[in-house]
Write a structure and sequence with these properties.
single chain, alpha/beta, Rossmann fold, 2 domains, 7-stranded mixed beta sheet, 3-stranded antiparallel beta sheet, 18 helices, 41% helix, 22% strand, globular, disordered C terminus, binds S-adenosylmethionine, binds zinc ion, SAM-dependent_MTases_sf, tRNA binding, tRNA_met_Trm1_C, EC 2.1.1.216, Trm1
Amino acid sequence: AAAAAATAADAAAPASTPPPPGYTELTEGRAKVVFPTGQVFYNPAQVVNRDLSVLTLRHTVAALRAERGAPAETYSVLEGLAASGLRSLRYHLEVPGLSTVTANDVDAAAVATITRNVAHNGVSPAAVTPSCADAVALMASHRAADRRFGAVDLDPYGSAAFLLDAAVTAVADGGLLAVTCTDLGVLCGNQVDAGYARYGASPMRGAFAHEMAVRLVVFATAAAAARHGRSVTLLLGAKIDFYVRIFVRLRDSKAGAKERLTTSALVHVCSGCHTPVTQPLGARKAPNKLTLVSAPAWGVSPPPPAGTCGLCGGRVAVGGPIYTPPLCDPTVVGELRTALGADATDLASADRLEALLALLQAEAAVATPLFLHLATMCKVLRCNAPPAAAVRAAVRAHGFGVALSHTDPQAVKTDAPPALVWEILVLWVARCKGDAVLAAARSAVAAADAAVGGRRDGVTAAPVAAASTATAPADATAAGGGDAAAAAAPA
Ligand SMILES: C[S@@+](CC[C@H](N)C(=O)[O-])C[C@H]1O[C@@H](n2cnc3c(N)ncnc32)[C@H](O)[C@@H]1O
Ligand SMILES: [Zn+2]
C-alpha cells in the first residue's frame, strides 16, 4: 500500500508554479497553498485533523474497493466546506483510488482561492473541482443513489449539525462521512438549550464532558442516518484539541437504523458525587428483536430510585441520549496504526496520531461509556489522590476491566460498578486515617459485599455513606467530612 500511495501521488505529481507576487506559499503534506502575504487563514492546529482524515480515507477507499471489487478510481469525494481547498488537494494527492474531489464553499472568495490553489498545484479542475454552493443544497442534489459520493467531509466553523441530514443522504452505501464540530463549549454543556436544539440531545458538564461531546455528535449523525433508513458504523470518534472529529461508514439498512435503540442511552449524573450512570433506551430480548428496557421482565431497568443517587443520595440530573458503544472499531484502528508505522510515514503528525489511536484502541477494550474521574472523586472525599495506577490495579484485581480515556488522564473507565471504585477510594482514605478507621471502612465494605454476594452488578448505597461515617466529622481535615458527608443519605 505504501508503494501504491507513492505511485498514485507521483503519477499526479504536480508541476506547481512559484507563488504569484504578493503571495506566500505554504506546504502541508503533498499540497501547496498560496495566500496573500500577511493574511492568515491557515490553521496549523488542523494538521492533525487533515492527516487523520487522509489516513482514514485511504483505509476506507481500500476497504470499499476490496468489498465491492470495484475498479480503480471510482471513488468520489465531496469536501462540503473547503475554504482554501488544502484538504481537497491533499485527498487528491495523497489518497490512491479517488476519481474526483469536489472542493465546495459557499463563499465566492473562498472558491477563487480554491481555484487558484488547484492551479498552483498543477492539478486539473477535473480532478479537484472547485464548486460554489451552499453545502446543504449541494448534498441534497446528490441524494439519488447514482449521484452519491464515496465520501463526504464536513469541516465547518462551529457545529456541523445543520449539515447532517443532507450529508447522510449524499454518501454512497458503505461510504465514509467525516464530521468536525468545533462548538465544544455547547457540546460540553455550557448551553444545554443550544446543544439540545443542535444535536437532539442534552449535553452535560462534568469531567467526562469531552467524551460525551464525541458521543453526542455520533448520536446526532446516527439519528440523521436512521431517518433515511441508514445505519452508521463508527470507525473512530475523538476529541482533539478544540474540536470533535468522527468518521462513520453509512449503510442502507433499515434494520441497522432500528438497532440505534440499543446503542442510545440517557445519562444520569449525581450532583453530589458526580458519578455518571447510563440508562440504555433499548436492549435485545432475543437475536433480531429489539425491546424497550423499561419492562423489568427484560432484565434492564432504570437506575433506582428516580431522581436520587444510589451511592450518596444526591440529586440526579439527566442528559443525553448519547451513543454508547466504544468510540472506535479497534480492528480498523489497529490497521490505521499499522499503516502509520509502515505506509503513512509521510504524515507530519504521525507521532501524535499514533498516540491518539493507541489510546482510543485501549479505551475501546472497556465497553462502558463515560467514566469516573479520580481527581473529582478525591475532591468529593476531600482526600489526596492515590496513584491512578494503584486504583486501576485494584479495580482489575476485582476482575473488572479498566482503561484510560483519550480525553482525560484522570479517567477511570471501567465496567466495574461505580460503587466498587468508590469503595476502593474509601479504603484508601481510611488507610490514610489509621487502622481503626480502616477496619470500620472494611467492615462497611464487607457488609455491602455480603449483601450483593461479592461481585456487585448493581449499585449499592454503602460506599459514600461509609466514607462519611468512617471518617467524619471529628477531624476537620478528615476525608469525607465535606460534600460527600453532606450529600450522603442513610443507606
Ligand atoms: C473551517 S473552514 C473549512 C476548512 C477546510 N475544511 C480545511 O480543512 O482547510 C469553513 C468554511 O465553511 C464555509 N461555509 C460556511 N457555511 C457554508 C455552507 N452553508 N456551505 C458551504 N460552505 C460554507 C466558509 O466559507 C468557510 O470557508
Ligand atoms: Zn451520588
